[in-house]
Amino acid sequence: MSEALSAGIDIGGTKAEVALVRGREVVAHQRFPTGGKTAEEIVGEAAATLRALLPAGAAPRAVGVGVAGRVEPGSGLVFQAPNLGWKSYPLGERLTAALRLPVSVLNDVQAATYAEGVYGAGRGASSVVALFIGTGIGSGILEGGSLLRGCSGSAGEWGHSVVDYRGALCTCGNRGCLETLAAGWGIARLAREAVTADPVAGEALLARVGGEVEHITTRAVGEAATAGDPLALGVFETAAEALGAGLASIVNALDPCRIVLGGGVMEGYPTLLKTADERMRARLAASVAVIPPLMPAELGRFSGVIGAAEWASANTP
Fold first, then answer.
1. Does the predicted TM-score (pTM) go above 0.90?
2. Is the dihedral of CA 221, 223, 229, 230 positive or negative?
3. CA-CA distance, 296 to 298, in Å (whole number)?
């Protein structure tokens, strides 16, 4: 763990966060929108924002970048970043040239996983799996203090593990992925289908969205469930069942010491963690020696920049 000043950049489909980081402390930060901008425009703005944040004459020990996409280990080449419209974009090379500093690039959720493992809910555990459940489900694996990235850099895509092989069509083109039942878009889909099938049972939820089924969002479902609406509670029960099945598979495959759950869906309906924990435990084989605790993520919106900065610092000679 480094206490020197490092820089972290977290690039997503709608916004980017640039920060100066010392350990788990964010010393300074600035956001800017990314929607509708080219890759070169985003790189230029990220570099300019970082320079503006730096004290006069100062330079970060390392610059780490987390990006919402698949990243080639070592090169910083972004194979694909659908929300940004990037394919085979040399992000590491471009940012290195713009900043005149070495830049390390990894997937944004892997960066957040690293942060939670080093400074957050996973600290002190030798093996950590983190899932961040928002619109989709991103995840990462930390083993012995190092990120497990796999052959192409995309290890840990638990959101697209199949929990129902005859299930709904996923955004990835497969059927029955965990995302179809437990991600934000999957929860909204389940609720819309339930209301369409039984409009009377869905009256309370419909009232929250102006009476239009297509306006049902994950946030609305979470608010309705918190208020005790039976239909919304049933939707989250389905999501928890699927999440529990997915988590049981993770435990059987990886035997982690701890599992960290974060993201907007978890924050919007915190009870989901407890229910998913119960469903996971019910599914685990009797041969599992240690059932890992499920822990809520601790670092919030800054986990990406903290993780990217810390990971770059740890991997910079």
1. yes
2. positive
3. 6
